[in-house]
Design brief:
Layout lengths: L1 H22 L17 H4 L6 H8 L2 H33 L3 H12 L6 H12 L5 H8 L11 H29 L3 H9 L4 H12 L1 H12 L7 H8 L6 H4 L2 H10 L4 H29 L7
Helix pairs in contact: 3-15, 4-8, 4-11, 5-8, 6-12, 11-15, 14-15
């Protein structure tokens, strides 16, 4: 009994944290169904039903930002997880510990950079007048690229930037899973004549399969929640790029901070949360149908 009380006491800070910062704010979801007035407050503002949702969908922006969010996050999940697995396997196969540590440090460094810093780096690379890329093109007597007015470029820039910043951090989880694989399996396979690729495909990947499923499921749970820092700091308020780069999070931010549409921004946030909730339930259901032991719940 005493040990149980100790464990509950250790759990208490996390429970209190999530209760205060995750559950109590959920009361504010009523703003999605109200026309907010500062003089009346959240709970006394007049009800407007589904008018905030109706306006969001009638503007024609709902489908665009939803598809952008879904499309980018799907690509992020696929590309980033594949690269993370490849990097983790390469690091695990490196024999020299000093080289592995240096490689891990270099790969992890971008993750700790603020998106503000990454945005500044991007501007210094892509600026039409002073950017490094256009300076090189001019020095070669080639036409400069007007990247900040061409939406098509950003479909690739955002994917590459996301991978560059997060692959090192994500690879740590897969590295931990690989390090827990029984080394005797590798030794036995090597004695039987299996080459490195056969060991990877027949031992490493099957062994880390549960980790892959859990991490992908967690990523799918936020597939309708865009990385606000990535999109806002790289694109900012550049309306010329909204068609290709605007996601639900940046649209919600502009609704609140620029247009001062508190009710509609709350409605969009609620819509986004419902999409994420339904998605994780559907993904978990499919995993349970295929492999019950690796499902989240």
């Amino acid at each position: 009994m005493a040990s149980r009380k100790t464990l509950l006491l250790m759990l208490a800070p996390a429970v209190i944290y999530f209760f205060i910062f995750a559950y109590l704010p959920m009361a504010g979801v009523v703003l999605a169904f109200k026309q907010f007035r500062y003089d009346l407050g959240i709970f006394n503002s007049p009800w407007v039903g589904f008018d905030n949702f109706r306006f969001f969908f009638l503007t024609g922006d709902a489908f665009r930002v939803t598809m952008n969010t879904l499309g980018y996050n799907t690509v992020f999940i696929i590309v980033n997880n594949i690269l993370q697995i490849i990097v983790a396997i390469l690091l695990a196969e490196i024999g020299k510990k000093w080289f592995r540590k240096i490689s891990q440090t270099v790969l992890l460094l971008p993750y700790f950079l603020s998106w503000v810093v990454v945005g500044a780096i991007a501007y210094n690379l892509f600026s039409f007048e002073y950017g490094l890329i256009n300076s090189l093109l001019r020095s070669l007597n080639l036409e400069p690229l007007d990247i900040y007015t061409t939406p098509e470029y950003w479909k690739y820039i955002l994917v590459i930037t996301s991978a560059w910043k997060t692959v090192g951090y994500g690879a740590v989880f897969y590295m931990a899973a690989i390090m827990n694989v029984d080394r005797e399996s590798y030794d036995a396979a090597e004695i039987d004549g299996a080459n490195i690729f056969q060991r990877i495909f027949h031992i490493t990947l099957p062994a880390i399969r549960p980790t892959i499923i859990v991490l992908v499921l967690l990523s799918i749970g936020t597939i309708f929640r865009g990385d606000f820092g990535l999109f806002y700091q790289l694109v900012g308020g550049n309306g010329l790029l909204y068609q290709a780069t605007d996601v639900i999070d940046t649209y919600t931010y502009r609704s609140l901070m620029v247009d001062n549409e508190i009710g509609m921004s709350a409605a969009i946030g609620f819509y986004q949360s419902v999409l994420c909730f339904v998605t994780i339930l559907a993904a978990n259901y499919l995993v349970r149908r295929v492999d019950k032991d690796n499902a989240l719940f």
